[in-house]
């Protein structure tokens, strides 16, 4: 699924939300954040649950195609946000957009870094990079493998409930607002 909202005629910044499988970002969330901040936004959902490796159903057919389409929208800067599976998709898009010369920044929550034998852990540079993660062993492992990312651990939370607990406490609004204002 692809949903796009335009809140401004300026082509300065586009925020792309990559949804995860669980209690991640949903239509309400991304509309709320962008209404507050006035950025244009795009919500991507991989209903096939293939970690965006086959693109975004009914929009793109591959990771490269997704990056090409995002860049082709013509924004000066792209902000990528993803949770879990969506974090994986956002990280891959970040890599590919940088190779295309697109100015980008990324914020991921409990990102997955492996899928079907593919590993996206490694050293990252360029753009602003941040990972927020919970206390689960897999979340700590995945996040610490992303060298070059600023990290923030939420100790009281586990993978499935990180976003919902951040929403409930009001911290998610603060994290996103601060990060998006950059």
- How much helix is in the residues? 25-40%
Helical stretch tally: 6
Query: Ends: how far apart?
Result: 28 Å
Unreliable parts: none
**What class, by secondary structure content?**
alpha/beta
CA-atom Rg in angstroms? 15 Å
| CATH level 1 name | Alpha Beta
Q: What would the principal axes of the Cα set say about the shape? A: globular
Characterize the biggest β-sheet.
7 strands, mixed
**How many runs of DSSP E, i.e. beta strands?**
11
**Strand order of the main beta sheet, please?**
1-3-2-4-5-9-11
CATH architecture: 3-Layer(aba) Sandwich
Query: Helices and strands, in N-to-C order?
Result: EEHEHEHEEEEEHEEHH
CATH superfamily: Alpha/Beta hydrolase fold, catalytic domain
How many structural domains in the coordinates? 1
**CATH T-level topology:** Rossmann fold
Range of strand content: 25-35%
| Average of pLDDT | 87
Please characterize this protein's 3D structure.
The chain is α/β, with parallel strands linked by helices and 182 residues long. 35% of the residues lie in helices and 25% in strands. It has a single domain (2-181), classed as Alpha/Beta hydrolase fold, catalytic domain (Rossmann fold, 3-Layer(aba) Sandwich).
Which short descriptors sum up this protein?
single chain, 182 residues, alpha/beta, Rossmann fold, seven-stranded mixed beta sheet, two-stranded antiparallel ribbon, 6 helices, globular
Helix/strand layout:
Blueprint (H helix, E strand, L loop, with lengths): L1 E4 L7 E6 L8 H11 L2 E5 L18 H10 L4 E7 L1 H15 L3 E7 L4 E2 L2 E2 L2 E2 L5 E5 L3 H8 L1 E2 L2 E4 L8 H8 L1 H11 L1
Parallel strand pairs: 2-3, 2-4, 4-5, 5-9, 8-10, 9-11
Antiparallel strand pairs: 1-3, 6-7
Helix pairs in contact: 2-3
């Amino acid at each position: 699924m692809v949903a796009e909202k335009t809140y401004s005629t300026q082509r300065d910044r586009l925020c792309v939300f990559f949804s995860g499988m669980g209690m991640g970002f949903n239509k309400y969330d991304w509309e709320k954040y962008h209404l507050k901040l006035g950025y244009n936004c795009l919500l991507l959902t991989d209903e096939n649950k293939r970690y965006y490796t086959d693109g975004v159903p009914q929009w793109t057919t591959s990771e490269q195609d997704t990056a090409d389409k995002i860049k082709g929208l013509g924004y000066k800067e792209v902000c990528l946000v993803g949770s879990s599976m969506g974090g994986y998709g956002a990280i891959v898009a970040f890599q590919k957009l940088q190779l295309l010369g697109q100015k980008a920044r990324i914020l991921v929550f409990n990102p997955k870094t492996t899928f079907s034998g593919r590993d996206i852990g490694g050293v990252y540079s360029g753009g602003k990079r941040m990972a927020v993660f919970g206390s689960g062993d897999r979340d700590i492992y995945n996040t610490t493998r992303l060298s070059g990312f600023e990290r923030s651990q939420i100790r009281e939370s586990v993978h499935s409930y990180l976003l919902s607990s951040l929403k409930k406490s009001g911290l998610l609004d603060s994290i996103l607002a601060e990060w998006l204002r950059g």
